[in-house]
Amino acid sequence: MIRFDTVSKNYPNGTTAVDELSLELAEGGITVLVGPSGCGKTTTLRMINRMVEPTAGTVSLRGQDIREIRAPELRRGIGYVIQHAGLFPHRTILDNIATVPLLLGWNRRKAQARAAELLELVGLPSEMGKRYPNQLSGGQQQRVGVARALGADPPVLLMDEPFSAVDPIVRAELQAEFIRLQKELHKTIVFVTHDIDEAIKLGDNIAVFRTGGRLAQFDTPERLLAHPADEFVAGFVGQDRGIRRLSFVKAAEVPLRDGPVLPATTPVARARAAGEPWVLVVDDERRPLGWAAEAELPENGTLADASLTRLGHTFSLVGDSARAALDSALLSPSRLAVGVDTDGAVVGVADAYELSAATAAADRAEAEAAGDKSAGAEAAWDKSAGAEEEAGGKADTGSAGGGEG
Amino acid sequence: MSDGEPLVRWQWIGDHAGELADYTGIHLRLGLLPVLFGLIISVPLGILCHRRRWLYGPVLTVANILYSIPSLALFMIFVKYTGLTERTVMIPLTLYTLSVLVPNVVDGLASVPEPVRQAATALGFGPIRRVVQVELPIAVPIVIAGVRVAAVSSISLVAVGQLIGQGGLGYYITRGLQLDFPTPIVTAIVLIMLLALTTDALLVLAQRLLTPWSRSKVTAS
Amino acid sequence: MNDLLNQLRLVGDWLASSKQWHGDGGIPQRLLEHLTYSGLSLLFAALIGLSLGLLVGHTGRGAFAVAGVANLARAIPTFGLVVLVVTLAGLSTTPVLVALVALAVPPILINTFEGVRGVDPATRDAARGVGMTEWQVLVRAEVPMALPLILLGLRIAAIQVVATATVAAYPGLGGLGRFIVDGLSRNDYELVIGGSALVVVLALVVQIVFAALRRTIVSPGLRATVSKS
């Protein structure tokens, strides 16, 4: 879909923003370009819509060299979202969103109707269309920015740190909204961020750049966390990548046991016989009621007479990841995570040690799947691995500071 | 102008050097005292406008209207009260400076970062000490930018005062017209521009001396 | 206070006397002259100042020269320039108009330039990014956003031109300044103060016109920012 063929960008002052980049981005997925300041990720993005012209190599879109397309025309067919939204302050929200349709020569009524549709799509009330950008919050402006980019329903969307200027709560909201939108629209999205968490959360594929404009690794989030290509990537991905990997293991794959799970009608004597320090008391429909400590069980009667400790939170075997399960285990008074099905009925429990076994299972599954990765990604990965050996020990671990671009 | 008359007769300038120096002094006084008076009015007025935001709009409107009144008309209105004196020239020129100085004082105060303002309050500065010792110094670059504009236009406007007999170097402009002789006019224009540009340069220097901290910031960025 | 009333009465008397309203040297003729000088020179200055300011602002080339010219221009004594032009070229309208244009160009030029330069780089980037041609970036994004400053430049130029056109009466031109200059030489204070009153009213009208323009052609979206900052 989008192909970089040994693309470089050098500036007259001698700096290299992008160094012989070869990369092929698949259609219909989110590719995240991530890396420290000055790694060339934004430059790479901006070469796709010719906001930056490469000094060497070619960028092609669906097999066509983009230099063959007039820049304004090319750009009208590619959505573009930037950090501070860059809305036109002198135009109403609706007019902002209608920008590209109007540039394409649609009539006013049709463009406005399209804009109103998009306003709704990004989750903003229609009365907001008459306002001006300055009357909106940062998060709302960013939504309008996305709507404007979608104006002419372009197949490709470029997003340059679109969510980094808003506070964490709004960012999480926008990210969730973005994932929902993408499920609906299936755009080919190139997304730049310096935030590895955001990259892992949103990306189908992630390209990690190192300072000096070199591609360090191009891979799926799972593989990036499991097998960072080198020290630089490992450092950039972070010390807790082991735990983050659990995000990609489905909770359903976690081995559970149901020994400590007992109905409230169970006699105390039988509960003792189970030999567990904690038992999980459930109701008739196996919904969890609370934890009972073996040491504090009453002399006789049933578990209904026992004083229960609050549950903490459970994890769902349907929607959650192994990471949620681990979190649930660590926060539980019994140190056991409680897995429930869609009805909220307990399936079983597992402790942190048992959960870590899930990682090993994931590794095995991945090793089997490693064969059928896309050829383009593999080639790029090999190339960057070679480049890394040349770079030797000077793999700096993403020092902050310095302006981007 | 008679044919063959050169734009400038250097001889004339040499002959009138002493007199030119006297008029230059008068011109400076007529041009710069209004800026000083304007500053004396604008700083408290600007602080007040900064504190009471609703005042700013009306004050600015009045200052802008005063500024838009042609100097000749304003001189004539004051002639009735202050006669054909220097004051008649300086009062309107003072009023003109307000349209630049008041907004620059207000903008300068607004440029003080909120954390700095709050830190000063937290450290125990009273409202007045805070303005004088913290906010005004930070506002200096923007205020001086206004003073530069005010001083340059004030110096060039003084010449019109010659129509009521108080124009500093403007004397040579009317004199040249009466004699149909361009040398004094050109000399006056050049001297006035030199005065204005020198004053401007000195103000830039003053700003550097007054705000050593902004200098280092400039080189760092 | 009595004085002020007195002055107003003088102005009233002068305006009321019918001879001011007719024939050669009457108020309508002087006003027309004044408006012609000011209007024509403002028009030409706007053509020059706007096109140059937009060009320099959009391309960013020549910014240094623009700043230098504007600084130098402010230092020129307008009165001196007009008198010099009359001394050199004789008493006719065209040279004075040229001088007025020369005085009005710098404020228009510098403010237009600053307005376009001051457009948020992210917005300009977005304008290109959504596929505007350079011309569209200028016309659809930069100019509307620079409009408050462009109007400011035009207003300053207008004020300057109206004032200088008044002074142009001294070396012998028409316009409202005529009343003041003639009144001064004849020691006719009624004429002086009446003429001054007309000039003041004209200045106020100019202010009102620009305030109205600002209200009608500047986008409300921009006014919100201006009042916020």
TrEMBL record, chain A:
Its EC number is 7.6.2.9. InterPro entries: AAA+_ATPase (IPR003593), ABC_transporter-like_ATP-bd (IPR003439), ABC_transporter-like_CS (IPR017871), P-loop_NTPase (IPR027417). GO terms for molecular function: ABC-type quaternary ammonium compound transporting activity; ATP binding; ATP hydrolysis activity. The keyword Transport applies. It comes from the Bacteria. Keywords: ATP-binding, Nucleotide-binding, Transport. Residues 365-405 are annotated as: Disordered. Pfam families: ABC_tran (PF00005). Residues 2-237 form the ABC transporter domain. PANTHER family: OSMOPROTECTANT IMPORT ATP-BINDING PROTEIN OSMV. Belongs to the ABC transporter superfamily. This is ABC-type quaternary amine transporter.
Automatic annotation (TrEMBL), chain B:
Its main location: membrane. Keywords: Membrane, Transmembrane, Transmembrane helix, Transport. Pfam families: BPD_transp_1. It comes from the Bacteria. It is found in: Cell membrane; Membrane. It is a multi-pass membrane protein. PROSITE patterns: ABC_TM1 (PS50928). One of its GO terms (biological process) is transmembrane transport. This is ABC transporter permease. It comes from Streptomyces acidicola.
UniProtKB/TrEMBL annotation, chain C:
The chain crosses the membrane at residues 35-56, 63-89, 95-113, 149-171, 191-213. Gene3D superfamilies: MetI-like (1.10.3720.10). PROSITE patterns: ABC_TM1. Its main location: membrane. It holds the Pfam family BPD_transp_1. InterPro entries: ABC_transp_perm/SBD (IPR051204), MetI-like (IPR000515), MetI-like_sf (IPR035906). It is a multi-pass membrane protein. Residues 31-210 form the ABC transmembrane type-1 domain. One of its GO terms (cellular component) is plasma membrane. Keywords: Membrane, Transmembrane, Transmembrane helix, Transport. It is found in: Cell membrane; Membrane. CDD domains: TM_PBP2. One of its GO terms (biological process) is transmembrane transport. Belongs to the binding-protein-dependent transport system permease family. PANTHER family: GLYCINE BETAINE/L-PROLINE TRANSPORT SYSTEM PERMEASE PROTEIN PROW (PTHR30177), POSSIBLE OSMOPROTECTANT (GLYCINE BETAINE_CARNITINE_CHOLINE_L-PROLINE) TRANSPORT INTEGRAL MEMBRANE PROTEIN ABC TRANSPORTER PROZ (PTHR30177:SF33). This is ABC transporter permease.
